[in-house]
Predict the 3D structure of the following.
Amino acid sequence: MLLKRGNKAWSGGGWWFYYLCMRLTGGDAKPLVLRFGQTFDRMLGFLKKPVVVTAEINMNLMALTVMGLISRLWGLSYPRAVVFDEVYYGQFVSLYMKRIFFVDDSGPPFGNMLLALGGYLGGFDGNFLWNRIGAEYSINVPVWSLRLLPALAGALCVPLAYQILIELQFSHCAALGAALLILLENSLITQSRFMLLESILIFFILLAVLSYLKFYNLQRHSSFSGSWWFWLLLTGVACSCAVGVKYMGLFTYMLLLAIAGLHFWHMIGDQNFSNVSLMCHFLARALALVIIPMAMYLSFFYVHLTLLYRSGPHDQIMTSAFQASLEGGLARITQGQPLEVAYGSQITLRNVLGKPMQCWLHSHTNTYPIRYENGRGSSHQQQVTCYPFKDVNNWWIVKDPGMQQLVVSNPPRPVRHGHIVQLVHGITTRYLNTHDVAAPLSPHSQEVSCYIDYNISMPAQNLWRVEILNRESDTDVWKTILSEVRFVHVNTSAVLKLSGASLPEWGYRQLEVVGEKLSKGYHQSMVWNVEEHRYGKSQEQKEREVELHSPTQMDISKNLSFMAKFTELQWKILTLKNEDTEHKYSSSALDWITMDTNIAYWLHPTSGAQIHLLGNIVTWASANVAALVYTCLSLWYLVRRRRKIYDIPEGAWQPWVSAGGICVGGWAVNYLPFFLMEKTLFLYHYLPALTFQILLIPIVLQHLSDHLCRSLLLKSMFSALLVAWFSSVYLVYSTFSPVTYGEPALSVTELKDLRWKDSWNILIRKQ
Amino acid sequence: MPAAGGGQAELGPRGGPLRQRESRRLLGGLARPAAPPAPSAGPARPAALALVTLLSFASRFHRLPEPPHVCWDETHFGKMGSYYINRTFFFDVHPPLGKMLIGLAGYLSGYDGTFPFQKPGDRYEQHNYVGMRGFCAFLGSCLVPFAYLIVLELSKSLPAALLAAFILIFDTGCITLSQYILLDPILMFFLMGAVLSMVKCNSCADRPFSASWWFWLSLTGVNLAGAMGVKFVGLFVVLLVGLNTIYDLWDLLGNLSLSLVMFGKHLLARVLCLILLPLALYTAMFAVHFTVLNKSGPGDGFFSSAFQSQLIGNNLHNVSVPEHLAYGSVVTMKNLRMAGGYLHSHWHLYPEGIGARQQQVTAYLHKDLNNLWIIKKHDSDTDLSDPSSPVEFVRHGDIIRLEHKETSRNLHSHQHEAPLTRKHFQVTGYGINGTGDSNDFWRIEVVGRKAGKLIKVLRSQVRLTHVATGCILGSSGKTLPKWGWEQVEVTCTPYLKESPNSLWNFEDHINPKLPNISLDVLKPSFAEILLESHMVMIRGNSGLKPKDNEVTSKPWHWPINYQGLRFSGVNETDYRVYLLGNPVIWWLNLVTIGLYLLIAVSTAVALKRGVQLTTELKELSRVVLRGGGQITLGWLLHYLPFFMMGRVLYFHHYFPAMLFSSMLTGITWDALLKFCAGFLSHSTTARKVYRGGFLALVLLITYSFYLFHPLSYGMIGPMASDPSSPMAGLRWMDSWEF
């Protein structure tokens, strides 16, 4: 398991992959050929010959990887306390360990699963209460292994950055610069060292970019070779992993798809390709970049749902059918219920919407007040509400209007779509009724009540037509849990609806239920399903009360297919919205470019030691300048080229354009969409965009030195400037490393000195 | 413009065996050439134009005065038209041109502005409303000839143009939307006008700087200004024209025979006509707007004190108040942020779980008694209204207490989180009858003043600092949820940034002991007014959020004609009008979009692969890619942005996109029929297929209009869900409510 995991994570660094492949395929071969950029088939060719192997190792890459590992892994289990969003992801890790179902509305499950893998490897039993940032970890929490995977991913971004620049055809020097800038970026370090998802996301994004570049560079001379396939497939796999970690990964995925589409468009114009080979190329790309990612994405959910089979705290947002498929919880109650609702059935009715909370149709002996606070009158009949808790008053009996009996006949007569029924409240034996009286809180809708005959010429209107919405034919039987039903009032054609408003004191703050006259199309608030169900046996009211109080029992199980579960869970993840409250450290997207904001991750309980998400300000500023310079220069070149004036040779123009497409494009797609989002944003959302922007710095610098510094004097001056600038990057890194690593503790004056911007919120204890 | 007849004359002889051999190399469907049946000769065009125009006017003006009561949004726009006639200031989220034109039309047709337009269903009685409806219907009728001309220009094919025109003539949705006092026909008029003049200008590209070139270019600019001036949706057509212009300029730049000076001229001409001219017109219409509306009205509170002082009848106009603030004065405080509200409080408490459970303090945009506060000294509670006590002025740097006049609670802050902006502190009303605690003390400071100076009403920009925590009173600009009556949040910010959010001025000032002095308040410049009114409009627009649990129209509903809008009448006995597109046309449009994508992609791939095409096919592919592309871009630009809008959306927002979609249908089917006809080498069969297909489409459209015309021209009798209704068989979707 560990080996496999390592395989995937290390493959970014080219030669390790071959190393591992050699170990896996020809395990006993002692001498190894390790040549950077070799292809599979050539490697297989070597197996036929005497095995003579020379090793070629890129020491730069080695050194960078080691430095990356040191910077990210050093003192990883410090602080031994819950840091920032660990409090959030930790819960999920615990739930994975306990196999309890949950819904994380922030994204797909792959990221959480990876974190849980860390916990699994460290032997975590899931017993920790994740309730407070800063809480000390108990002894059973394997802090080191929980934080290991994000840290490894963060460390591997350093060699990945190096390779990306090489593949973009820039010099080793520029590549080294890019890797070092990533290495010394405080915000990336902070984010990788805890149980958070951004570093994993960035790793997969960079891996996807790198594999696509490798694939594209192989395209020219060795299409359909082994390594061509390998890098193409890896692109798809890395993309789906990125999307699986966070939906933000979609942006990079779309960018790569667009770039691949553009490249393919150029191929279409190339007359050297025959129609057949073009078709093959197209199919290969579609397979690797569309179909495989989709399959992978589904498989994440498959694993997620297989792992989590027990019912838990988030059950209630799911439909009854989904809940019934989990072990424990609703399944325990509904197991063995009769499937078909019949006349005389005793049922509880749950509203399908589940917002503002799940609730069941409910009534109790209290009546609507004669006059409301605002002076409007009511019918003064028995209240009907929607109640968010299980209660004996949630039971209703389905009655045939033509017959008196309240028990199920033998054989049971099932209720079908379009049948007209009466609903009798089990405990009070009153009939569900609605009439032309304004509802208490939604005056445009009708009041729903349980009818009390006051003899005041207000007749009972208690006939309801059952409409099954997910029916297959018009004679479908009303089924427990599975059928989504709408109740249409026969006299007024109003529809039974949950208005979502909560009643005042007289209604015990339960939710208002109304009859909606202008039912516009389908809305979940008008849809109900039977959750608990049994065939009523007692004709006498007293007996029936006893029966209602007893738990339901019988045997049939209902299993949902994986696709049905997936669709529902996916839909819930996309539509579930947290209360949009602002966080203390939330920021707006505009603050990120200039790093006007920071996030305090952790503060030592006694000393002044603290950890902040705070970037290397020199790098951030340089990255902005680089992006600006790149855009201006490109525009200038473009206009000039349009007039057939070529400032730089064609050989340099192509890498310049593709580098811009990837780096500026990557920055833009990962940053600009945040301006359209209406969710709570944090500085760490900017990190993927920042990574791309950092890659642009050495690209622009090399371009400036190669093409704009014409004389030798200028070149050496430029180099001197570079050295000075790079020292300042290092200086800032080391200045801020105490708040990056949380060690050593700083004094109050030192902390005050670190507050370079007024908007940074560095925590200073009052003396 | 190449004459169509001439084109046909050329075609005949060239369809020989040579071309057939060539065409073997074509990919898939792009097979044999054949003479596409040519459109009829020259004089047919003016006749066709006259025909569609006539039909269009007839369909829009038919039963125009019916129903004689207020329909749907007429209640807003009719009312706003009346405001112009009465010269009363109001506030609306849209720019003023559309409503000004409605007002003008009403004024010219003899409407006197006295009808209140209270709610939909109110009878007009003797008031003259037909003039305003007629004006909108006139503009709505122009859409059809515009569409005809645009398609003709892009495709050079008379049948394509006719098809597009017929679709628009016989679409019930377009008819309904053109028949009432609404902004949409006006918006669509300018929008189509802009596209038409853009297309015309493009076809003048071979003779730049000629009179007609200048005419169409500047007309594009004028129409752009018009579209922007009616609704901000006009921005999308500005984008369309902008993209087209950039493409155009890029093309010119690549033309090396053009000197840079000439290119500069081209650039300047476009900047002049497409940027400066529209901007000038746009500004001018606001100037007219503010000049016409010079009386105080319902929109005052949305604007700053300085702005209000310009309105006749406003309490700030020619104001005469005590100049300097004194203890015991009753005041209102207005936030200096654009569209900031008055400091406000009311009896309701913050709900549980949101800070301390004390009385809410908010910012409120309307004038209200709950905006009144009394200035008191922090340390003494003597009754300052006693006429015998001496007047004591408030000075810069004083520590004061603000007591809410209606509830007698003090403005208070403490270290609890504010409800929305969690980094700030909560502001509440605290204490009973003015007795609170030391958290009620605020230091009052005037920006840029020294200690000890007096504080002036209206002119002083004041900052209130909370003494205990050091935070500053401000308004965050965020709208509170339902419990806060959707008023604006007021917080105390611990970050000491200088911004208008945390600055206030005193607006009303009542103190009987002080003499009233007429103040010549700061007159805002026109630029300031313009900026301010835009801020207010944008804020108003983004404030139109859907309520929880409300069933709202979603953008994906629109192209499938999922649900319409009730214009008039609910019950069986009412005269009912229902805004719904002619389903046959709309679904044809929907299918055509898919079809177009298919055709366009295969054509583009074929061209890229270097497949040899015949001249006719080349011309056809140019029409499909270039002309169809422009129209598709227009459709996308007018449709996709709605997916990203947070505000409440309605079905009628789709109609601009629908215009583009209909034009695309004309172009696509014409091209498709030509392709199909191309398969049949015999020119007579080909012509038959082409004519037959075209006729079938037109008949289909006409017949569906015959079926659905009561949607626009009024339905009386039982609802369609009742089998006895004349519309009974036509309720093809359950979501239609007629």
Observations:
- The mean pLDDT of chain A is 84.
- The two ends of chain A are 51 Å apart (CA to CA).
- The CA atoms of residues 118 and 146 of chain A lie 5 Å apart.
- Chain A is about 45% helix and 10% strand.
